[in-house]
């Protein structure tokens, strides 16, 4: 790879732990307003068997001076470009909420270019074909904050200090805009199997809407409902870790 390619990878992917003997690679994509460190616990738990690359979108944290990418397609294009041709390890994708939509579009692009995807793991997001007319990104700052509070509930301290949250509102608004203007374009189903995790009380992704992910794969689908709201995954990390390990490392083992 050229120096510029390596620089781009360093910008987009965070490798929190080295895994020289990893059996698979998992690329994790954050939710709207989220950043790569959200997946630090996942990386710590899966090392050394799985190499975890957490995506850092532009416009936040150490990339705060870079311009936003304003559409799901633009984000998917860039990430797929960087992952294309990686065949030294089985490659899987995990995305929560907005990250699930981007992961799906990345998987489509990779498969179209001949790069296999082992498994697509999606979390907290209805299927691409299940559209809701949402316009959170057009609300006032207080309106966006109200939505964040509604989704975080008691499961995750997303908000912290209001002054800090207001500083990241441009990031959140951009990401909501990307998700809410996304429109699924019909195409061939994925060759990769899909595992969909969902909170049984998620206000923005009903179990039936999440079940429709099964329509987007020809290789098998599994729905995993778990107690909780939109950020159910923070209380079910062990369950999700077992699924990831089972699928990517110990393929023959039954779930526990």
Automatic annotation (TrEMBL):
Domain annotation Thioesterase TesA-like: ranges: 27-244
Gene3D superfamilies hit by this protein: alpha/beta hydrolase
The protein, known as: Surfactin synthase thioesterase subunit
Keyword Hydrolase: yes
Family per similarity comment: Belongs to the thioesterase family.
Gene Ontology molecular function: hydrolase activity
Keywords: Hydrolase
PANTHER family attached to this UniProt entry: S-ACYL FATTY ACID SYNTHASE THIOESTERASE, MEDIUM CHAIN (PTHR11487:SF0), THIOESTERASE (PTHR11487)
Family annotation (Pfam families): Thioesterase
GO biological process per UniProt: lipid biosynthetic process
Keyword Isomerase tagged: no
């Amino acid at each position: 790879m050229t120096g510029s390619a390596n620089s781009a990878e360093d910008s987009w992917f965070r490798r929190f732990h080295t895994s020289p003997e990893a059996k698979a690679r998992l690329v994790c994509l954050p939710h709207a307003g989220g950043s790569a460190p959200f997946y630090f616990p996942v990386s710590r738990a899966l090392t050394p068997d799985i190499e975890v690359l957490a995506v850092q979108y532009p416009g936040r944290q150490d990339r705060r001076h870079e311009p936003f990418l304003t559409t799901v397609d633009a984000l998917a294009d860039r990430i797929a470009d960087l992952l294309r041709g990686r065949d030294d390890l089985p490659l899987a994708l995990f995305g929560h909420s907005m990250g699930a939509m981007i992961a799906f579009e990345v998987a489509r692009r990779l498969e179209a270019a001949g790069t296999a995807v082992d498994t697509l793991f999606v979390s907290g997001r209805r299927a691409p074909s299940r559209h809701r007319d949402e316009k959170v990104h057009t609300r006032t700052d207080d309106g966006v904050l109200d939505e964040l509070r509604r989704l975080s509930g008691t499961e995750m301290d997303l908000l912290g200090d209001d002054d800090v949250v207001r500083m990241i509102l441009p990031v959140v608004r951009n990401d909501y805009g990307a998700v809410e203007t996304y429109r699924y374009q019909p195409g061939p189903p994925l060759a990769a199997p899909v595992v969909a995790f969902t909170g049984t009380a998620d206000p923005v992704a009903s179990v039936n809407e999440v079940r429709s992910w099964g329509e987007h794969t020809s290789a098998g689908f599994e729905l995993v409902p778990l107690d909780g709201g939109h950020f159910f995954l923070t209380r079910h990390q062990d369950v999700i870790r077992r699924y990831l390990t089972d699928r990517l490392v110990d393929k023959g083992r039954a779930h526990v």
